[in-house]
């Protein structure tokens, strides 16, 4: 089926806006491709260094310049549950490459931090910028110019966006992303959330809280709630950068290993040395980006991608805007209910039909572009499948199920949970912001109440503990943008505001910080742009000012005369503490160079 007219119109708008920059990007890509197999440009001394650690047979193969060499970029570390499985992947990939007549080398490692560990801690102020570090670190690994294609081992919040930026910066190389999968289901997410609320209210102690958290996050693999990490995996499949059906296969299973071997072999098959050359930058175009956004809306994915997708698209010369994302949300239906937008986790989503069912539904209804290039080579329709393990240990695929295995978790387009995706741009005299409404009850999406202003989330939490917040109000948490302190996630506000809402209070959040995939049942205007430190109006709000947040109409307003608002001085608090400790000293330049949130917040001068 052809794509719907409204989807086609938005896609064409992006294409026209991007034309000059995209053409320049593709010209650079083609120039790089035309230089031929890249090891041929290295001197003998360069090449000898490049394969010094290889086996004798591999040296001979690489010296002949006719065997493809696969560069592995890995985000392995064994502290992060999602990335711990990657410890064994390089050896598995090398064996699979050898079986396919190629060679594989670890080209470089990139950092991978866990926002779950750093929530509310100074290290969280490095989180967003770690995306840019990851892109640059991957670039260093690939700059050795030894490789015919690259595979990327990464899962979590900033890692996949950073790796995607790198893959598109090196867009003359084919790129295959290899996931490691989610951990098996543990303590249900709603039970974990309930314990968090009880702890915030002082009704259970730290021991009970730690027990609940440990039962939820309990083994190697990605966290099972639908935050940024699992939204990443969905998007890689929607963009055709995964092999079909690979996003949510649990680690440590025979099928997971078989899919890793298959991904390796596919990466070698699409190099310039074969007949199916698929450079990443040529493959990913405006339609691919739109498909990623459509998938985000259809599954109720992470608000972080309203920042990351803009930066990822910019790396391929494509200009994506918040308005594009919002307009797509208005027409794409919500087809999945995965925590925090429901009670299920990603394992339940996969069992109900997963990505294969979702993609088929979106294609059949014309919400996604079918005629895109993918690493699989057959357009997006080939992803409407379900993988299984064949008797010989390889991967075999079946058509996606016609009916969802659990319609409380995954539903077809005719019976969608709601008509829109639930990500919307808010506009008004406070600037622009993002709101995620898919987990917010309709009757809670409008709040008009006096502001209570905080300069950090710790101050709000302390006010809650002191009993000062048992009333209707809009919490304004400012000086949390990229330039102020690196735009940390303010995840600790979710529980406190949720408690107050459950008590019957009308509450909302307005912030120039982030809330991520954990954005939940409380209406939250996040990523407010311009940020306070960038002379944004959010910096001029005073306690008691009436704030109106309307998630249905898409407005965010301070009910103060514009003349008075403009006359108020911007009072910047002492932010010097944000510049020191836990490595924050090293990121002063990033804070100074960071673009606005609606421009992707990149810190290395990437134009959007």
Automatic annotation (TrEMBL):
Protein name: Phosphogluconate dehydratase
Residues of the Dihydroxy-acid/6-phosphogluconate dehydratase C-terminal domain: 409-601
Gene Ontology BP annotations: D-gluconate metabolic process; Entner-Doudoroff pathway through 6-phosphogluconate
Gene Ontology terms for molecular function: 4 iron, 4 sulfur cluster binding; metal ion binding; phosphogluconate dehydratase activity
PROSITE patterns documented for this protein: ILVD_EDD_1, ILVD_EDD_2
Catalytic activity: 6-phospho-D-gluconate = 2-dehydro-3-deoxy-6-phospho-D-gluconate + H2O
Binding site for [4Fe-4S] cluster: 156, 223
Gene source species: Tianweitania sediminis
Cellular component annotations (GO), alphabetically ordered: cytosol
InterPro entries: 6-phosphgluc_deHydtase (IPR004786), Dihydro-acid_dehy_C (IPR042096), DiOHA_6PGluconate_deHydtase_CS (IPR020558), ILV_EDD_C (IPR056740), ILV_EDD_N (IPR000581), IlvD/EDD_N (IPR037237)
Pathway annotation from the record: Carbohydrate metabolism; Entner-Doudoroff pathway
Family: Belongs to the IlvD/Edd family.
Domain Dihydroxy-acid/6-phosphogluconate dehydratase N-terminal, first and last residues per copy: 68-381
Broad EC category: lyase
Function statement: Catalyzes the dehydration of 6-phospho-D-gluconate to 2-dehydro-3-deoxy-6-phospho-D-gluconate.
Free-text remark on how the cofactor is bound: Binds 1 [4Fe-4S] cluster.
Cofactor: [4Fe-4S] cluster
Keywords linked to the UniProt accession: 4Fe-4S, Carbohydrate metabolism, Gluconate utilization, Iron, Iron-sulfur, Lyase, Metal-binding
E.C. no: 4.2.1.12
Matching NCBIfam families: edd (TIGR01196)
